[in-house]
Design goal:
Helices cover about 55% and strands about 5% of the residues. The protein is mostly helical. Strand 2 and strand 3 form a beta hairpin. It is elongated. The two termini are about 25 Å apart. A three-stranded antiparallel beta sheet has the order 1-2-3, with helices on one face. It folds into three domains: about 60 residues, no CATH class; about 130 residues, no CATH class; about 60 residues. The longest helix is centred in the C-terminal third of the chain and has 25 residues. The chain has nine helices and three strands.
Length: about 260
């Protein structure tokens, strides 16, 4: 009977970083108090606030889909360039009103369509307004946020933000890999497959193969193999070692090779 192939699921792994959330929060709290930023936003609101209040802001997921093609054209020709200019000036990913407040510890389960869930200091400009880059990232399987991972069967695609401290990068990798392997193991076991738990023993594997070939390929007697492979051992111990290696080799040859990882 032919064995069925495991049916792997695509799992999205998300790991939050309380420390990074606080970094974003503090950056925003300082920025929104900056008098020049407040003046820049006031000037922007005076120029475009009336249109945006009527049509809906660009980040409003309830109103934005109702824009007509003419609204999209007007926004990208008249408003978006000013937003991008201010984002570049202040090194933020979006233009948020200075009166907006966010929680220091973000609740990722709470989603509001009319406004972003995190401050403008929480994501880079290029992953919000550089549409070519966004398309390229999505085609490669990335989201551009830097703190996400996806598991495809036994493979994991992990996004690292190189602006993070190395300690946070290492912590993120460890947490993602532990969780991903745990879920992969559970998935295999649910389908009746064995999760490989062995470790590499290359020196022993070489001896296994040598003993196997002498016995199965050259038809040597066990005592002869012991003298060839283990010349410095006693006769009794040498024979025992040959039997052990043959037994181990047979298991690997007959299927346990799959557990080498």
């Amino acid at each position: 009977m032919k064995l069925a192939h495991p049916r792997y699921t695509l799992e999205f792994l998300y790991t939050s970083f309380p420390e990074l959330d606080k970094v974003e929060w503090y950056k925003w709290e300082f920025l929104r108090r900056n008098p020049e930023y407040r003046a820049d936003y006031k000037k922007f609101a005076e120029a475009h606030g009336k249109w945006l209040s009527k049509k809906g802001y660009w980040y409003d997921l309830d109103k934005r889909p109702n824009w007509e093609p003419s609204d999209e054209k007007y926004f990208y020709q008249k408003i978006a360039p000013e937003i991008v200019h201010l984002c570049q000036k202040w090194q933020i990913g979006d233009l948020h009103p200075p009166h907006w407040r966010f929680k220091k510890k973000r609740n990722w389960e709470v989603f509001k369509a009319e406004r972003p869930s995190g401050p403008a200091t929480g994501f880079p400009l290029e992953t919000n307004w550089n549409h070519r880059l966004i398309v390229d990232l999505m085609e490669m399987g990335f989201t551009g946020t830097g703190r996400n991972a996806r598991r495809y069967g036994h493979l994991v695609l992990v996004e690292f933000d190189l602006k993070w401290p190395i300690k946070d990068l290492s912590d993120f990798a460890k947490r993602v890999l532990i969780r991903a392997q745990s879920n992969y193991k559970a998935e295999l076991e649910e389908q009746g497959f064995h999760f490989p738990i062995g470790r590499r023993r290359f020196d022993e594997y070489s001896t296994h193969l040598r003993v196997w070939d002498l016995r199965k390929g050259q038809h040597k007697k066990l005592a002869e193999i012991a003298e060839i492979v283990f010349p410095n051992q006693s006769k009794e111990l040498g024979l025992r070692m040959v039997r052990d290696h043959l037994k181990a080799a047979e298991k690997l040859v007959m299927g346990r090779y799959k557990e080498i990882r």
